[in-house]
Amino acid sequence: MAKIKFGSIITDSRGTVGGHTYTWTRYGNQLITKPQTAKLQTPRQTAVRVNFLLLTKTWWQLLTVSQRDDWRALAAANPRPNVWGDDFPLTGLALFISLNRRLQQAGLAAFDDAPADQFVTPPTTATLTVHAPSTASLAFTTTPAPTDHVAYLHLTGPISPGISNATTYLSFLVASTTSQTSPWNIATPLLARHGAIITGRQYAAALYFLNTDNAALSAPLTATTIAT
After folding, report:
1. In whole angstroms, what is the distance from residue 191 CA to residue 5 CA?
2. What does the alpha-carbon distance between residue 60 and residue 37 come to, in Å, rounded to a whole number?
3. Residue 179: how many CB atoms within 10 A of its CB?
């Protein structure tokens, strides 16, 4: 579904209508033919889809009406920003899936009951260090992470040093144990996902803190480095 931002005249548009996609490029807004990608799924994509179906079944088949109403109230009280930074509320189901997906990625148990709030303490600094062929760490403050918080990391594989915005290359890599101290050794999950570190390539990270009491995720701190 396309999203269109109206002003006195339409100022922006995103998404897909029919066979065409609105997108933003360095040249401004463009309308392009919707790309037709192969339907092949990686094991990670399959796991995400299965998890989504299981959480949806839990919402409709296991949660009580009262539990679902509590999730709807939490969603209404905690709107999310859209692509333009404007706040909009999620549905209760969308928030239930979003928070529980985070917990399960971090190796934590899912919630049936909606938490009371979405308070989370954010990290204040993040510095990524990567050395070929197999050394990688992330230094951060405040250290250790606050009680009942885990460090939650998105990371790219090796990308061109000329890329200034690595957002589209980031994906979830690993979550720490509670009260993680700095520096955090992230070599093992990095190598397992992306292989040996390549000298001269850029690596980018987005560090969050995840509050394990309510599944709230802080705003990210980004860090980039060129592997040596």
Report:
1. 42
2. 32
3. 14
Q: Could you report the per-residue pLDDT of 67-103, keeping only the tens digit for each? A: 999 999 999 999 888 767 778 888 999 999 999 999 9
Query: Quick one: how far is CA 213 from the chain centroid?
Result: 18
Helices 92-105 + 43-61 axis angle, to 10: 130
The token duo for 15 is 């998404």
For residues 178 and 147, is the Cβ–Cβ distance under 8 A? yes
pTM of structure? 0.80
Tokens of 97: 């899936």
CB atoms closer than 10 angstroms to residue 80: 13
Task: Record the tokens describing residue 18, joined without a space.
Answer: 């029919």
DSSP per-residue string spanning 30-41: EEEEPP------
Two structure tokens written together for 200: 């001269």
CB atoms closer than 10 angstroms to residue 213: 15
Residues in the chain: 228
